[in-house]
Hints:
There is one protein chain. The radius of gyration is 12 Å and the shape is globular. The protein contains four helices and four strands. By secondary structure, the chain is α+β, with helices and mostly antiparallel strands. The protein has a four-stranded mixed β-sheet. 40% of the residues lie in helices and 26% in strands. The two termini are 19 Å apart. Strand 1 (13-18), helix 2 and strand 2 (43-48) form a beta-alpha-beta unit. It has one domain (3-94): 3-Layer(aba) Sandwich (Glutaredoxin).
Amino acid sequence: MSLGDAALQAKLTVIDFTATWCGPCRAIAPMFEALSKEIDDVVFVKCDVDEAPGIAQRFSVSAMPTFVFVKAGAVVDRLQGANPQRLRELIEEHM
């Protein structure tokens, strides 16, 4: 599934904007992966800002990691920074 297809889903899509050189991104990556296996009703997508700068720009991403929460094509929330507890809270809030 492409990022565009995922963002148009009726169910919640969480986009993790990341970069290979980003330490906090690497720190939270295992938790993001675990959540993607644990929660079936949410689509989890990673987007490397260096490989897809246009997508990062479209979602106004200026720092990594940034998590953008999209439902039915609309951004419903965002989280900047590697905060595992808040990431889980926002996922549960918007499911």
